[in-house]
Amino acid sequence: MRIVLWPAVALAILAGPWLLGGGGAVFSAFVLIAIFATMAYGLDVIVSDLGEVSLAHPVFFACGAYATAISTTRLGFGPVESFLLTVLTALAVAAVIGLVTLRLREFVFSLVTYAVTVVAMTVAANWAFLGGSDGISGIPLFSLAGWQARTDRELWPVAWALLMGAIYLVDAFRRSGLGQRAMTVHLNPELATMSGIDPLRTRLQVFLVSAPITAAAGWLYAYQRAYISADVLETYFLILMLTAVVLVGRRMLLAPLIGTALILMQEKFLSFGGYVDSIVLGGVLILVLSFLPGGLAGLARSGLKMARRGG
Amino acid sequence: MNFAQQALNGLILGHAFALIAIGWTVLLGTARLVNFAHGQMYMIGAFVAWFVMSSWGLPYLLAVPAAMLAGVIIGWIMQATLLRLTIKQDLVSIMIVTLGFGHMLEGAAGLSFGSTGQILDTPLSLKDIYIGDLWITWQDVAIVIVTIAVFIALKLVLEKSRLGRLVRMVAEDPKLALLAGVDVRRVYLGVFAFEGAAVALAAAVVAPRTPILTSMGFQEVIITFVVVVLGGIGSVTGSYLAGLGLGFFTAFFGAYVSQAYATAAMFGVLIVVLALRPGGLAARAGGR
């Protein structure tokens, strides 16, 4: 069943923009949804599987964006080299953050990771190497083996492949020994220790799996925008990721994608201006966590149950 | 910039930091709650004070309580939304919800006050004092006096009064307090309302030192983290001393090393402290 179903879903997503009329705005929306969903998948692993809330994930996103911006404009790197650099940078930064926060739990962990993001923003806005407050412009077009993506329509297959890669990785992670260990550490730390699992080691490993996924989204974002500045560290991205992860439900493979799609569709097609959109996004996050602990999927399940009981 | 002037700046900055952080200290120490919207509440307090003075022509002495009233209302609404999670002590969800509130407040502030920076001038901030070649304003004097007064009052209330005992009892064991007939919900609502009032007071008193922007909450909250953590979570005296120490550190770092990286340096201090005593901190703060 899985073997037939998943490729069908993947192909349906690939064909999505064409099925929806194939306009430029539709392709742009799909590319952005794919990028931001990939960004959210990295965080999903930490929130849903490890049970911690990392607020440093915008830093990994920025790692990818800046590594790509700098290496393509100053060193002439192509997409493959810049992707490798993105992964390496994210791993290095994740190792440092992971080691520093290794023994911190719950909100102290979140507090420190939040501080990492704020500090990263002040550094990005002030350090000349990272372009300072002007940022880095002139990022070349995405071109691979003689083929160039000049528009979002041409970039869509790349964004789709990135998204599929992220989903595949998260799925593989959940089936792997590491994924099982992470869940054990999350749900029952005592049992984990008794079964010979090293919780600190597991945490660090999950962090190292998660960071490159979010960073890879930053890699494509740099090509899509052609310009990167300290804005990539704004709270918007953090709130977007968190909302995308909790909106639909935890530990459901397509939940971050559907969550991101719902949020971006509101912002692209039902926008009330930036400020009101902030209020809407913050409000959705508050409502889901305060009143819908199971997310939209939980709501649908209890709705179904009630309908069955009624009938 | 001479040494004495920097020391004086540090002293004032330190009192400002302590005052900004006091709401969080009480929130975390007595109710084991966190509020990531703290910085945005500071921003709203500053803008409400600015708005009632510049648009309604209210005097500064009335603008301060107006800002505090706004803080109380926001704090109350937040805690009313969070009550279910608070009773469950689901700190992780509480944290994300407060982040969501911060994002909403920033959007609402942008909508109401625009995105341009403003200057919150008060009658005190325009009057200078010169002592030899040292320079401060009466606003700086007010910061020091208000901070000391708030800390003394708070310490007295928490340690000597029935209300203080009630709040500490709820912090120690909410379920037991509930059994003892304490209205736990009202205590939580009250503590959050106090946090709102305290941070708005801090904003109305401290914000005249710098231009105010609707996006400033993002950074402001870091100062609070560092003060609360350095002071030993929840300790009122500790956070006063931590605020002072951090004020001196920031003044000298800003003057002799780099102004732009002062926040980053502050964060470095936080990391060092956490590396030195991670276990004790996490155990006490997590509350389990």
UniProtKB/TrEMBL annotation, chain A:
Keyword flag Membrane: yes
Compartment(s) of residence: Cell membrane
Membrane topology: Multi-pass membrane protein
Coiled coil: none
Predominant location: membrane
GO cellular component term of the entry, any: plasma membrane
Membrane-crossing residue ranges in chain numbering: 25-47, 59-77, 83-104, 111-130, 204-222, 228-248, 279-300
Record key words, sorted: Cell membrane, Membrane, Transmembrane, Transmembrane helix
Taxonomy, superkingdom: Bacteria
Pfam families associated with the record: BPD_transp_2 (PF02653)
Keyword Transmembrane helix (UniProt): yes
Example GO molecular function: branched-chain amino acid transmembrane transporter activity
Stated name of the protein: Amino acid/amide ABC transporter membrane protein 2, HAAT family
Provenance organism: Albimonas pacifica
Automatic annotation (TrEMBL), chain B:
Regions that span the bilayer: 12-34, 94-115, 135-158, 187-206, 212-233
CC terms in the record's Gene Ontology section: plasma membrane
Keywords: Amino-acid transport, Cell membrane, Membrane, Transmembrane, Transmembrane helix, Transport
Highest taxon of the lineage: Bacteria
Localisation: Cell membrane
CDD domains: TM_PBP1_LivH_like
Primary location class: membrane
Alphabetized InterPro entries for the sequence: ABC_transp_permease, BCAA_transport_permease
Any one GO biological process: amino acid transport
Signal sequence annotation: none
Database matches in Pfam families: BPD_transp_2 (PF02653)
Entry membrane topology: Multi-pass membrane protein
Molecular-function GO term, any one: transmembrane transporter activity
Keyword Transmembrane helix: yes
Family: Belongs to the binding-protein-dependent transport system permease family. LivHM subfamily.
UniProt-recorded name of the protein: Amino acid/amide ABC transporter membrane protein 1, HAAT family
